Amino acid sequence: MPYTASTPTDPHQANIRNADYRLLERNKLTPMMQRYVEVKEQYPHALLLFRVGDFFECFFQDAVTISRELELVCTSKESGKEIGRVPMTGVPHHALDRYTSMLVEKGYAVVVCDQVEDAAIAAREGRQVKREITRILTPGTLTDDGMLKARQNNFLAAIVIAGTHWGLAYTDISTGEFVTTQADSLEQLNLELLRLQPSEVLVPSNAPDLVTMLRPGEKSDGLPECLPSSFCYSLRSQIPFTLGEAKQRILQKFKVRSLEGMGCGQLALAVRAAGGLLQYLEETQKGNAVPLQVLHTYTITDFLTLDYQTRRNLEITQTVRDGVFHGSLLWAIDKTSTAMGGRALRRWVLQPLLNIKGICARHDTIQELVEDNYLRQDLQQLLRQMYDIERLTGRAGSGTASPRDLVALGDSLAKLPELGAIAAQGRSPYLKALQNVPPILAELATKIHAHLVDEPPIHLKEGGLIRSGINSLLDEMRQTASADQEWIAHLEANERKRTGISNLKVGYNKAFGYYISITKSKVDQVPNDYTRKQTLTNEERYSTEELKQREVRILTAREDLNQLEYDIFAQVRAEVGEHAEIIRNVSRAVAAADVLCGLAEVAVYQNYCRPNMVESREIKIIEGCHPVVEKSLPPGFFVPNSAFLGREAALNRPDLIILTGPNASGKSCYLRQVGLIQLMAQMGSFVPAKAATLGICDRIFTRVGAVDDLATGQSTFMVEMNETANILNHATPKSLVLLDEIGRGTATFDGLSIAWSVAEYLASEIRARTIFATHYHELNELASILNNVANYQVTVKELPDQIVFLHQVQPGGADKSYGIEAGRLAGLPTSVIERARQVMKQIEKHSKIAIGLRKGVKKEGKEEADSEQLDIFDT
Ligand SMILES: Nc1ncnc2c1ncn2[C@@H]1O[C@H](COP(=O)(O)OP(=O)(O)OP(=O)(O)O)[C@@H](O)[C@H]1O
């Protein structure tokens, strides 16, 4: 997209470019500029980037200039050194994201604005271009690429097996989180591994079949077909994984007397897995990289089970088609301000709760934050200024934190009392948890700030990281060093005077140290006490005895000084590391509050409602929406739809809905939206609906679309049947089952028969709450046979030459597919369309006869073969 960075289209922008923004009258600024001014006040180096479609347009900022080649040149204010360049012509935003991440990591704040209106149209109509701030990225938050990286865990896992039971332990090596649990089946274990996506899994040598199973691309019974490509395993034959050794190792590592207090005393397999993992960490030194925090235990069955297909089909963390974050549920609801909040949200979304009390505690907090805008905004404003406390603490504990890391941690810890004071205005336990900040954290923050300068250098050897007045020896050494520096500084003037050489210069380079430079034409004026050091084309370089001595003193003093500064810094870092566990506990509370503030923000802006959670099997959604599709359509374009499921004695609601409707009418969207609303409610979020009453689900199953699994050599139909079999074998009356076009991957009658029997089994045997989207209109017959089945259809309006999709779900079955119509619209040749119509008439005739036969209406002259072929409806 052609544009020039130097011609701003927004007059405010031009004003601000030339003026001190603080002098501008705030009420004359657009809301966007007011927001920018606020950010600018907090972060003087903030950048402002405008995004137009897929490209970004222009910016202004004092520390950034535009080069002649129209490049955005970012320079560091402190060192004056260039830190990055971005070409300004047609930068796709994914490339921009990399740069903004880099800038944010370097301590800049970046304000990204979307131009929501075409500049040319606005100019023609004499209006200002409307823009809105989409993201404010401050240190501690990152752009999509960087953000995703920072918001993902970095797990290592170990598993042990005993019969059909499994022990699982994992640790996040960037935060030190250490968790162990037990799985009662291979399926449970697989689901946990898929949720965690560990980069390495340790398997004991007595489980050779596991090695095959965990190898990507190789299918084995019970294992989801698709393991992440990053997935790898290690066979650690030398790891004993024995109970006695494991216990001892855990007690030693976590410095506790008994395992009972950790909740895993009874979980022999979990303990063995933890012991094996600990041993591996010690052997490979990975354990020293991060001090592990106290071991946690959880029960897998305490959470809603989301299998691999459901995570994929509901597009929870990434989209099905492109496998990207943008367009997923997480993308639609992630308004967290910190990376640790982002990681917590990812956990919540993949582990929705089963316990109503726990869910309601989250809903209560969101309600409070929705009702009190000031409380939420104040909390978020502070949260945005916080860095990733969890990871910084991990680094402090492992001795890898840089001075900047420590200052960032100190800044964040210093904000905790203020955060607690704001949270004190709230009532919910999540906010109360922020109030009890242990005083030691404020002490640590004070200590960091008292010792380290506000902006320490990136490289330790640059020195100058410790404040003066902290250590008398350091101050003394600095004084001596500065006297020597001063002597050097005056040397040039003194030597010019002494020698009469007016262009004499004093310089320094790494190889030769300090030198006096004289041009070739003046070498005859060089005094006798000068000794030659280096000869260049146009100059000679000299030194003197005194300069040599000073140089030795300066360099040694610099080394000593740096060492002393480093020792002081390392001492402060170690002290912070000793309190890692306390800091982590607080950071978990901060992350949870961040998630809830974000969810409350989404609820306010997207107009979500608080779901009423009940123990029954009821699912009642009034005017529900798909959170992602709704967000991607212009306001008011999404057609909300209600859903009623869960038959109870007193209520005439169906357990199974047969959903029919033409292609592209919105069946899949409706199906997914019901699943997403249920999932969102159970993770503790408000939901996109006018009202919702939701019974807890133990599992959500989905079967949407069909893809070949070439890696495992499975056909479309086999994938479909495997997934369906898994659902029928595991669904319970408390499950929610979402099926999209079962039986499409095979011959029509086989497919129809399978679809019929699957629906029948779900409704009459399992009685799971099910939505069954299908193009087989014959399935509508089920509703007249089973009283817990109902027919719904997505409506369309038929005009003479086109079909209008109303996207409205209404009771009743559709009797027309409009598939041929869709083909016509897509441009199939007229002769093909005509022929298709003829063929369809024939097929319809047969189908009617078939249904007639089932109802016992014998048509005259019907051939025997027909009745045999269509006997499938007899139960
Ligand atoms: N409630 C709705 N309001 C507005 N637009 C919708 C709604 N539901 C779906 N759509 C739009 O219609 C498009 C098609 O929807 P969807 O894929 O769910 O149709 P479908 O009936 O499942 O089609 P097919 O049978 O071909 O798979 C979606 O991409 C979406 O943009």
From TrEMBL:
PROSITE patterns: DNA_MISMATCH_REPAIR_2. It holds the Pfam family MutS_II. Residues 735-751 form the DNA mismatch repair proteins mutS family domain. Keywords: ATP-binding, DNA damage, DNA repair, DNA-binding, Nucleotide-binding. ATP binds at residues 661-668. This protein is involved in the repair of mismatches in DNA. It is possible that it carries out the mismatch recognition step. This protein has a weak ATPase activity. HAMAP family: MutS. Belongs to the DNA mismatch repair MutS family. This is DNA mismatch repair protein MutS. It comes from Microcoleus anatoxicus PTRS2.
